[in-house]
Design brief:
- With about 450 residues, this protein is α/β, with parallel strands linked by helices.
- It has 2 domains: about 170 residues, Aspartate Aminotransferase, domain 1, CATH 3.90.1150; about 260 residues, 3-Layer(aba) Sandwich (Aspartate Aminotransferase, domain 2), CATH 3.40.640.10.
- It is about 40% helix and about 15% strand.
- The strands form 3 sheets. Strands 4-10-9-8-7-5-6 form a 7-stranded mixed β-sheet, sandwiched between helices.
- Strand 7, helix 9 and strand 8 form a beta-alpha-beta unit.
- Bound molecules: pyridoxal-5'-phosphate.
- The site of pyridoxal-5'-phosphate has 15 residues, from helix 5.
Amino acid sequence: MQNDVVGTTKAHLFGTWRKQKGWTPPHIQRGEGCYVLDASGRSVLDFSSMLVCVNLGYSNKAIVEAVTAQINSLPYVIPSMTTDIKAEVAKLVKEVLPAELEKFFFATSGTDAIEAAIKIARLKTGKPKILSRYFSYHGSTMGSIAASGEVRRWFVEHFGKAGDVVFAPPPYCYRCPLKLKYPDCGIACVEVIDHIIKNEFGIAGIIFEPVVGTNGVIVPPKGYMERLQEIARENGVLLLDDEVMTGWFRTGKWFAVEHWGVKPDILITAKGLTSSYMPLAMTAVNKEIAEHFEDNFFAHGHTYEAHPVALAAAKAAIQEYRRLRIWENVERVGKHLERRLRELEERHRSIGEVRGIGMFWAIDLTKDRRTGEPFNVYADKYAGNQIMAERLAAEALKRGVYLLGYINNLVVAPPLIATESDVDKGVEVLDEVLKISDEEAKA
Ligand SMILES: Cc1ncc(COP(=O)(O)O)c(C=O)c1O
């Protein structure tokens, strides 16, 4: 049975973001709490919430029941009609989003919601360009990939850019792209953004992940986000806050911008919105943008916009975050996770830096602690070279722990319901597999 499933999958489905040759997808049959069971009955700890999205873990009864009830009563209506669940979720998200966000567009993936945000920013301002940052990911469609400052864009860029995007350096202090040191740098990487905006024609908005996700869980240094907001306001450009990965308590707050008191003009989120039980994403805009479209054409839509069944999952997930007071678990277990990762940092010479916030952490690998030289860079991914983080993730999976390895980082982001003992189990396996990279790192 297992071979049939894997064989049929390989024959007829695409493995994403890879050459198809050599893909052997693990066959997963069930999920329970923070664990998935594979076809041989083996239990695997999900130490990255899959794609940092299954925030409430598997087998959450409230979400399953809400989805089932909605399918039974009303599975679908055309977007131009409304339903009880649309109004209920609109009210609920209004309660939890940053206060100035007024009007919402519900899409089916983070990518679609980013695409909507970029379009909305252009329609509102009449300006063509988006400022993004390197080391970012904002989605896979032609507009959202054009705004992504990482290697996945390279594969399609030679066809011509789908979007007019300029890039700034990321606030990556460990390997500062400007070769400076915080705080003496005066946060030059954010000042560069001011310089770019003043010297480019037609920037509609700045798109940013408040904590960079897949590309290394980069938490901005103190003062960065506040200054970014100031620069946006001074120059009259919109702030597009990509909280696809950081929203819904991943960093300990409903949304990561709350850590810095930043007020985005547009906020995009997905993943934890339904804890990934259903595909749902949203683009939320402030009052000024909402009012613009009173007399201007809102040139956007999808058949599955505000899909009732997906909205039912969102309603239940939001209620579950509150019922479980999930922020308390993130605070307590997040601290434990940090402590345990810092112990690994002391023990393993192939760890360059451990960094993160809440239950969102990265292990940034190095071949040489003195220079911080990474094992891999984007060009390795592009060239199809072996990636150390992927090798470590594959070894961890053999030992019963699923981990997301991307370029030079292991992303450690368990479901927000994880306990200290789940964390200990994951760390134990990390401790073992990091010996592999230690062997290839300078003593
Ligand atoms: C920050 C960020 N933005 C956008 C996306 C795209 O979301 P999706 O994969 O749901 O299309 C992702 C996906 O990982 C993401 O991490």
